[in-house]
Write a structure and sequence with these properties.
There is one protein chain. With 404 residues, the chain is of the alpha/beta class. 42% of the residues lie in helices and 15% in strands. The strands form 3 sheets. A 7-stranded mixed β-sheet has the order 3-9-8-7-6-4-5, sandwiched between helices. Helix 7 links the parallel strand 6 and strand 7. The protein is globular and about 60 Å long. It starts with 21 loop residues before the first helix and ends with a helix. The structure holds 4'-deoxy-4'-aminopyridoxal-5'-phosphate (PMP). 4'-deoxy-4'-aminopyridoxal-5'-phosphate (PMP) binds next to helix 4. The site of 4'-deoxy-4'-aminopyridoxal-5'-phosphate has 14 residues, from helix 4. Its EC number is 2.3.1.47. It comes from Haloferax mediterranei (strain ATCC 33500 / DSM 1411 / JCM 8866 / NBRC 14739 / NCIMB 2177 / R-4). It catalyses: 6-carboxyhexanoyl-[ACP] + L-alanine + H(+) = (8S)-8-amino-7-oxononanoate + holo-[ACP] + CO2.
Length: 404
Amino acid sequence: MDPDTTESQSGSPPQPDRGFDLESRLEARQRHGLRRELEPAADVSARTRIGGESQLVFAANNYLGLATDSRVQQAAASAAHAVGTGSGASRLITGDTELHRELEGDLAAIKHTDRTLLFSSGYAANVGTIAALDPDVIFSDELNHASIIDGCRLSDAETVVYDHCDAESLATELHTRAETAADDEQWLIATDTVFSMDGDVAPLAAICDLAERYGAWVLVDEAHATGLYENGGGLVQREGLSDRIDVQIGTLSKALASQGGYVAGSETLIEYLVNEARSFVFSTGLAPPAVGASKAALRIARDGECRKSLWENVETLRDGLESMGYRVLGETQVLPVLVGDRADAIALDERLREQGIVAPVIRPPTVPDGTSRIRVAPMATHTEANIDRCLTAFETVGTNLELI
Ligand code: PMP
């Protein structure tokens, strides 16, 4: 008999339980080693206290260390005083201020585009833009960030996933699809520029060549590149491809030291998004302190001193780790130290932590089996002594665990 219709002893039908058994869902996560926990730090500096212990942090995306730079902090405070702590409404109602326009202008200059538009996060920028473009087909790198993946889902487009950073795989997919496609189909190729778990970069010029051959648009996510390359721009600017990429998306939450996302592109693209991107239209304008902070951070990133320190730290760490016998993937500021075995990588992460170094383990399902790694993300504000301590810890722990 259907339990929902069973009569109880009192004669009244029992209430069906239509609630959510979250305890068992969490327990399942725990059993599979996928349960995550929050762990507050005292602040977001390169050296901070976590769980009462002093730690050197090699795990943040605050790559230039500007989130605790006094000039950026001052700019956030001034914006709060001059404009307010929150925007109070969507930009299309009363949440639009001169400060928002100023940052959008600065970002457009750095990204070499007509205009930019601020969103409440990089996530909202990706999801809102892809859905608003409403493509018929999206060609998406297999390791794209979750916000691109969610944008693809929300847009209802047919999504074709091509092999990671593989222009040949993309060419094959475009060719195959073109054989049966109607001429009026609208196609989007979407890729991160710097991949945050592998530290590698998309073959942007080859992607632009293919897009032009097949008449598709290109959308890139510069989240882990913005602020770090030419004049504070991203990888697109380093490669000189600003004119060939239709949509450049990024975040203010990493090198630009605050919170929020942006889309850079043509006047028409931005005007369209102002009208059609639901995560822009129906969300409160970015908080003025975040806007003020990123405006100051962008100016500092453009001047270049902190970028130089970051890249020096990256080089010292990469060289040091490689000379110990570690294999370091990628070619950017993200240094994934390949360990392979999941248990070894977890042990390395734990022992580093005991030595006062926070550098998180990245393991399946985030990365494929056999490719577990430690993600080391240096910051411009790590001192020479900090970098030395990190290297010493890797050497001691790696030797003890017989990894090197
Ligand atoms: N894109 C990429 C590649 C990211 O790594 C992230 C953040 N982890 C985002 C987008 C989302 O940006 P935000 O944190 O500003 O929402």
